Amino acid sequence: MTTRSSTTMRALRPDAAGDPADLRETVVDVPAIGADDVLVEVRAASINRSDMLACRGVLPGPFPRILGRDFAGVVIEGPESLVGTSVWGSGGGDLGLDRDGTYAQYLAVSRDALTALPQGLSFVDAAASALAFFTAAYALRLTGQIESGSTFIATGAAGGVGGAAAAIARGDGAHVVAVVRNDDEAALVREAGFDTVVIDGPDIATDIAEAVGTDGAAAAVDAVGGKLAGHLLRAMGQNGRYVLLSTPPDEVPSEVDLLDLYRKSLVVKGLYTGRVSAADAAEMLRELTPRIEDGSLPPVRVDRTYPLAEAATAFGTLGPNARGRAVLLPHGSESI
């Protein structure tokens, strides 16, 4: 059984908003746990774009605080029935945003924010996948039930959220149209078994329309936004459901044909995970466990792992050319 021998821990706890390149490991007290909490020894914690935005102060939250939204590890304090259990989870608007997060050796978290680690899923893969998986699952819930044989569009399909949304929809029997940025990403999604791939370019609107056919798409999860959103809405079929997960803040707004939206009775929703709780995330991850264990929902690709002391370098890997997630190992590589 894992135990701790110190009252302090290493963590990434900036005093104020700033550049992730300036992040430095610091020593803080191990958090105390409440009656409904457990203490998790964090074995792995992923770096996401939202963590960078939180560090910069773009996403609201108090400072000083420990950053980080994803985690995978082992319960070391709490109810006897949970101690020794391998768990994973992700914060919505709580962990790493309005309270201390996961970039630390230990995490105090509510029991309802935990999900047992699926069989065959490593700590590193779990941490890399948690936020992406629960976001995709929540988005699919917002689109409503996807009927077998219907057409589903996933943008950013080579990324974590878009790839997960595509995999979940395929598991539900949908014909998936995977939208990617370039040939390299197209090769990745084809390798993952998606045959209908649309590459962004000057003819993107026509290419998407041809891919979905005359009936249009029944649902779409858009992890890219921007000008692409208007093209997707025009490609939706009657009573289509579109969910937007992100959009560039400085891009020219998308043009939306309101008459087309009205005549098709389209449903358009936005999903901001900052309004979702870690308990909500845990519920989504529990629902996905069978898909993870049977291999139909593969983990998000990992580029490499880093110790906490190299967090600034790890954050530097974020960007459009990232080859996968960067994952922090608060206890070092020997812990995984």
TrEMBL record:
A Pfam family the protein falls into: ADH_zinc_N
TM regions (residue ranges): none
Cross-referenced Gene3D superfamilies: Medium-chain alcohol dehydrogenases, catalytic domain, NAD(P)-binding Rossmann-like Domain
Transferase in keyword set: no
InterPro entries per the UniProt record, alphabetical: ADH-like_C, ADH-like_N, ER, GroES-like_sf, NAD(P)-bd_dom_sf
GO MF term set: NADPH binding; oxidoreductase activity, acting on NAD(P)H
Domain Enoyl reductase (ER) residue range list: 18-328
Record's keyword terms, sorted: NADP, Oxidoreductase
Name of the protein this chain belongs to: Zinc-binding dehydrogenase
Organism expressing this protein natively: Epidermidibacterium keratini
Taxonomic lineage from the root: Bacteria, Bacillati, Actinomycetota, Actinomycetes, Sporichthyales
